[in-house]
Amino acid sequence: MSREDKLLILFESIHKVMLAERLIVKIYKPYQIIPVPKQYSSECGMCIEIISSDKDEIVAELQRNEINFNIVKRGL
Amino acid sequence: MLNLYFDNAATSFPKPPEVAEYTRLYLEKGGTYGRGAYDRVINVSRTVEETRFLLSQLMGTSLSENVLFTHNSTHAINIVLQGFRYKFKRVLISPLEHNAVTRPIEHLREKIGLKFDVIPHKSDGQISLEELGQLDLNRYDLCIINHISNVNGVIQPICKVKQVIGNLPLLVDASQSAGYFELEADKWNVDFMALTAHKGLMGPTGVGCLFIRNTELVSPLMFGGTGSRSDSFLMPEHLPDRYEPGTPNILGIYGLNGALKANVDFGFTRNDFKGLLSDIERLNTIKVYRSKSFENQGFVFSITSNNLSSSDLADILFRKYKIETRSGLHCSPLAHQTLGTMPQGTVRFSLSKYHSPNDLSYIYKALNEIDYEQGG
């Protein structure tokens, strides 16, 4: 799968990254924690990479749990 | 084998095996918190955040990001007292406060002219809710309550205090209650709660936490790197980073994580403890300092002897009976002023979940012999 098929979810803190990870695991979606790419304004050092097609379900789960985030396309 | 360590209000011992297990795990695997995004860091960050979540559950709050890691309760209390945005420069404190509260207040008296008043109370230090309600609470910035006294074990009615003081912010020092009694930060509507890992939670020293409900009330005490918003000279506004500069005590947090998962049951019953207090109270030369009502009694109490100084009594208990206690003022001169035990202080016994009824019986046996030898 190419980078074009991936999205990045950015969070303000490691606390939120870890909360989000737990939720993504709970709904059985694949993900990877990676360093925030330089081109994005980094609020904390980690972000979560997901597959684009899982976006809606993951976003819904994060919003349901009141977790603030930004979602961006994985750069090339 | 008897467990004769009765200084758990200072630092608990023994620790559950999980504490050593999780501490060793960190020493073997290494890694840091939130700086980088490789597996070793991710695993540490997961454990740190899981510990924060477990602490939020223990404190009875749904706001896990408002639970901040500190070195201990003293550090947590200093964050609140030194960072508080005072308007009236006057605080209200319970009559059984520890120096963790009174020394920062004294420092602030010298620095900004902060004053304090002691809440009206009964002879055992129990807050008088009726008299508290009669005070002009609009004169104060903050109310500070030691949930359980580290001298006589009196439990203060936090929920009722908050109902009486209304919007006046409340800081609760839960150092002696965490691990023994249920904490309900949300239900009680407390604004700040401080606790430490190394007492009733049976975790390691050097790690504690502060629950802070409203960050607008308190500026950070320390400033530095957080691994977030690294492009700015300013501390981040968001929690928990705003109050957590520098790498946290990861080793301590791992040990605390083990302690919080250990699930140790009490080895004795409340009735065993009640019986012990009643038995000691029957001795002629020994006076017990405890709550007037057993319902409001934590697992700490003090004694004095009619004939022996507190230090001599503690020394006899150790030399002759191998009982480890603490004598003196227990860093709480205000509590001793309240109880009338200044300047000699008391001999303090503080229990652990690892004690058995036999351990409690042994205390009585030793004190009974000492009482007899002292003419009781």
Automatic annotation (TrEMBL), chain B:
Residues 5-361 form the Aminotransferase class V domain. InterPro entries: Aminotrans_V_dom, Aminotrans_V_PyrdxlP_BS, PyrdxlP-dep_Trfase, PyrdxlP-dep_Trfase_major, PyrdxlP-dep_Trfase_small. Signal peptide: none annotated. GO terms for molecular function: transaminase activity. Its cofactor is pyridoxal 5'-phosphate. The keyword rRNA processing does not apply. Keywords: Aminotransferase, Pyridoxal phosphate, Transferase. Belongs to the class-V pyridoxal-phosphate-dependent aminotransferase family. PANTHER family: CYSTEINE DESULFURASE, ISOPENICILLIN N EPIMERASE. This is Aminotransferase class V-fold PLP-dependent enzyme. It comes from Tenuifilum thalassicum.
